[in-house]
């Protein structure tokens, strides 16, 4: 489990359109870059599930990549268990990427990647358990290109959960899943968290995901992103959005905050 602190984090990318090769031209504007994240300060407690919402393109994935150490901040820092993140720290953190499966390996071999430390028999059992969990039983010997988009995502989930890292970082883990699979896997993530209590960061576009899963909800503003809302959800689980008035009010507030004037 990790404690994560984000201090005065800024990120900007060089504005390539403004870069000039001429030695006489002033490149200072280009090197200032396009601001993506602006002075982000956040703290995530050990074992917390943090759901991050925000408009498309505001910098959510960029924020996750910096927490995982895949990208360097332009200013500020990320501390994991009080130690500054200076590069990828894959043993403790796992990121679900959009197409993170290794294409030359079967589903079985992809899930096996995180379980190589186990004895062969225990490993086999664990791989099968994770594959069954995401309902890919009988598809384990197929390659990623032979799976549908939703099945690929389920295989990625199985692999990520199998790695059992200190922090789980998930970038839109349910995108591309059909409604029922989305609900099922979301439930699995909640149940799994009850068991293992890892610090879990989830970027989602689905407000209900955030309300059902989050101990904390973060809403980022449009670019350059600032923290628009940081709210602890002190509700037990399972949560029922239809019955809990406070959650329903928060749901309306979140829709409004994200630019939809009526909740759907
Ligand atoms: N390597 C890069 N070079 C230049 N600009 C980049 C780079 N990576 C991301 N960006 C820009 O940073 C902004 C934020 O991107 P990011 O992927 O973090 O958004 P996001 O909030 O995850 O969006 P979405 O919800 O659509 O996934 C975008 O405008 C994107 O164009
Ligand atoms: Mg993204």
Could you please describe the fold and organization of this structure?
- With 264 residues, this protein is of the alpha/beta class.
- The chain has a domain at 4-18 and 30-92 and 165-257: Rossmann fold.
- It is 33% helix and 22% strand.
- It has helices at 28-32, 60-67, 107-112, 120-133, 149-163, 179-196, 207-213, 245-257; strands at 4-13, 34-44, 49-53, 75-80, 83-84, 93-96, 167-171, 199-203, 216-220, 227-232.
- The strands form 2 sheets. The protein has a 6-stranded mixed sheet, with helices on both faces.
- Helix 4 (120-133) crosses helix 5.
- The longest helix has 18 residues, at 179-196.
- The two termini are 35 Å apart.
- The model has no long low-confidence stretch (mean pLDDT 88).
Quick take:
With 264 residues, this protein is of the alpha/beta class. The protein is built from eight helices and ten strands.
List the helices and strands and how they pair.
Blueprint: E1 4-13, H1 28-32, E2 34-44, E3 49-53, H2 60-67, E4 75-80, E5 83-84, E6 93-96, H3 107-112, H4 120-133, H5 149-163, E7 167-171, H6 179-196, E8 199-203, H7 207-213, E9 216-220, E10 227-232, H8 245-257
Parallel strand pairs: 3-8, 3-9, 6-7, 7-8
Antiparallel strand pairs: 1-2, 1-4, 4-5, 9-10
Helix pairs in contact: 4-5
Which class best fits the helix and strand makeup?
Answer: alpha/beta
Which class of the domain at 4-18 and 30-92 and 165-257 in CATH terms? Alpha Beta
- Give the CATH architecture of the domain at 4-18 and 30-92 and 165-257: 3-Layer(aba) Sandwich
Oligomeric grouping of the chains:
single chain
How many beta-strand elements?
10
CATH superfamily of the domain at 4-18 and 30-92 and 165-257, called what? P-loop containing nucleotide triphosphate hydrolases
Share of helical residues? 25-40%
Listing every helix as H and every strand as E from the N terminus to the C terminus, the arrangement reads EHEEHEEEHHHEHEHEEH
The largest pleated sheet is described as: 6 strands, mixed
Number of helices: 8
Gyration radius, in Å: 20 Å
The overall average pLDDT, rounded, is 88
Bound molecules: adenosine-5'-triphosphate, magnesium ion
Task: Report, as a whole number of angstroms, the end-to-end distance.
Answer: 35 Å
Describe the strand arrangement of the main beta sheet, using strand numbers: 6-7-8-3-9-10
Shape summary: globular
Do you know the CATH topology of the domain at 4-18 and 30-92 and 165-257?
Answer: Rossmann fold
Report the β-strand fraction as a percent range. 15-25%
Low-confidence stretches: none
């Amino acid at each position: 489990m990790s404690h994560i602190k984000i201090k005065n984090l800024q990120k900007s990318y060089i504005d390539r359109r403004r870069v000039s090769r001429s030695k006489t031209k002033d490149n200072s504007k280009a090197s200032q870059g396009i601001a993506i994240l602006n002075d982000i300060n956040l703290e995530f407690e050990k074992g917390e599930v943090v759901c991050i919402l925000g408009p498309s393109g505001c910098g959510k994935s960029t924020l996750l990549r910096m927490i995982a150490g895949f990208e360097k901040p332009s200013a500020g820092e990320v501390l994991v268990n009080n130690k500054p993140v200076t590069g990828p720290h894959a043993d403790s953190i796992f990121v679900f990427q959009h197409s993170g499966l290794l294409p030359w390996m079967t589903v079985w071999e992809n899930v096996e990647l995180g379980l190589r430390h186990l004895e062969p028999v225990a490993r086999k059992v664990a791989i099968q358990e994770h594959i069954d969990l995401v309902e890919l039983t009988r598809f384990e010997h197929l390659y990623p290109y032979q799976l549908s988009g939703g099945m690929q995502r389920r295989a990625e989930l199985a692999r990520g959960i199998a790695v059992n890292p200190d922090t789980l970082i998930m970038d839109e883990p349910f995108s591309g899943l059909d409604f029922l699979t989305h609900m099922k896997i979301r439930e699995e993530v909640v149940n799994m968290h009850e068991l293992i209590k890892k610090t879990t960061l989830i970027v989602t576009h689905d407000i209900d995901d955030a309300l059902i899963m989050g101990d904390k909800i973060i809403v980022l503003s449009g670019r350059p992103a600032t923290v628009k809302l940081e709210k602890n959800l002190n509700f037990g689980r399972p949560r029922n959005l239809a019955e809990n008035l406070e959650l329903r009010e928060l749901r309306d507030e979140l829709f409004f905050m994200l630019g939809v004037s009526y909740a759907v």
